[in-house]
Amino acid sequence: MPAPTEFLTYIDAKADIFIKRLADAVAIPSISGDAKHRNDVFAMADWLNAQLRQLGVDTQLVDLGRHKMDGEDLPLPPAILGRIGSDSSKKTVLIYGHFDVQPANKSDGWDTDPFTLVVDEKTGRLIGRGSSDDKGPILGWLNVLQYHHESKLPLPVNLVFCFEGMEESGSEGLDDLVRRESKKGGCFEGVDCVCISDNYWLNTRTPALTYGLRGLSYYKVTISGPARDLHSGVFGRTVHEPMTDLISLLSTLVSPQGDILIKGVDDMVPRADEEEKAIYAGLDYSIADVEESAGASIALSADKVSVLMGRMREPSLSIHGIEGAFSGAGAKTVIPAKVSGKFSIRLVPPQTPEAIDPLVIDHLEKAFAKLGSKNKLSVENLHGGKPWVADHRHWNFEAAKKATKAVYKQDPDLTREGGSIPVTLTFAESLGVNVLLLPMGRGDDGAHSTNEKLDRSNFIEGSKLLGTYLYELADIAKN
Ligand code: BES
Ligand code: MN
Ligand code: MN
């Protein structure tokens, strides 16, 4: 049963109204990682909850308790659980998405205000924080719901929703909720498959279906010594300097070519055989694509397969920042008393945070001992998540392939992603069902970056794709 033509024309006809709704969502700066904006994440939960209710979804806001962030005790934003349809002859699909976003300030280099959705008529871009990650995709589901609500046409499957507001900050509290609701009598009982729309095509032309995500282990390494910040004219070459120690330590983690220098980490991953390499060679991707989305000619290699493997099937280590360091304008001659380096490692099977943590801590302690410094070292693990790989021959993927073909007249690329959505594996394990990642945006959307955008056509065709996927699912599942 293909999606009704009326559904497709409805989505086209309502495009401007849908874009207006996206603008309303983007206007709420629901930044989970910034304590000052915690009330906005709550406001975003209320906004989304009201939208879902208006469209006939039976919802509840679930309190996830409190947590500590940067030493502050804060209430966690609620998760939204919802259901529409409970026809036992239909399949039940669990939809996940997150309504929190990354921080954004115009001064980071945005051309426009990040929380005012700008519709660039020339390029068709919808520019604003969260447009692609992940408010656009969530609103895609609202668009699908709205057609069925207004036309009073029942959905072809039962839908269960799980939307959270802490994804960008490690999905605090969500794993427990998912495990609880997956049990007998829970909201997720009877779920047949999961669909997550929280990633991107590989390039700007070919739709993708995604069957893998990397995991993550995030570290904070702190060097402290002096009782207070010191004058470098008075104390330079007189005391052990925390910043000097930290830079030495950070430089032992990863080579400029991307090799992870912590013993045992790269070695944990089996090498790709020729068959696996052929998969990467077959993807519609070029070095030009990576350099276009990075905005510079800086790819680690000219070989497409090796660059793709670096993102999809190898671990990576990135150094993110130094807390406590002098970082303002001017030329302050300070010796900072306490500095913390932040870095994370993206993990691939069979790596887990539990297996990696001891290797990292041991490496840092040994490297620090070699410095012969009298300063103090401490290492903290901030958050983590396991990698996930799914079976892409499953009917869940078959339905998404058919839907892609129907909407985009093109076969999708089958990809693994370099990013992480830690709850994905929790869904797969606690429900024991197949999980599909069905992206809406393109590879150059700039999630987490300045001028994040979603192309208008991806929002509209992507909404059609989500709906069409449900129809294809109903069809396949019956056979
Ligand atoms: N949507 C991303 C996940 C993602 C990133 C998928 C890149 C595909 C490609 C998600 O919102 C995200 O940013 N996740 C964080 C998770 C972390 C905070 C645990 C990430 O990957 O850094
Ligand atoms: Mn996301
Ligand atoms: Mn994100």
Automatic annotation (TrEMBL):
Residues the entry annotates as binding Mn(2+) 2: H98, D133, D198
InterPro entries (alphabetical): ArgE/DapE_CS, CNDP/DUG1, Cyt/Met_Dipeptidase, Peptidase_M20, Peptidase_M20_dimer
CDD domains found in the cross-reference section: M20_dipept_like_CNDP
Biological process terms in GO annotation: proteolysis
Site (Important for catalytic activity): H231
Cofactor(s) listed in the protein's UniProt record: Mn(2+)
Designated name of the protein: Peptidase M20 dimerisation domain-containing protein
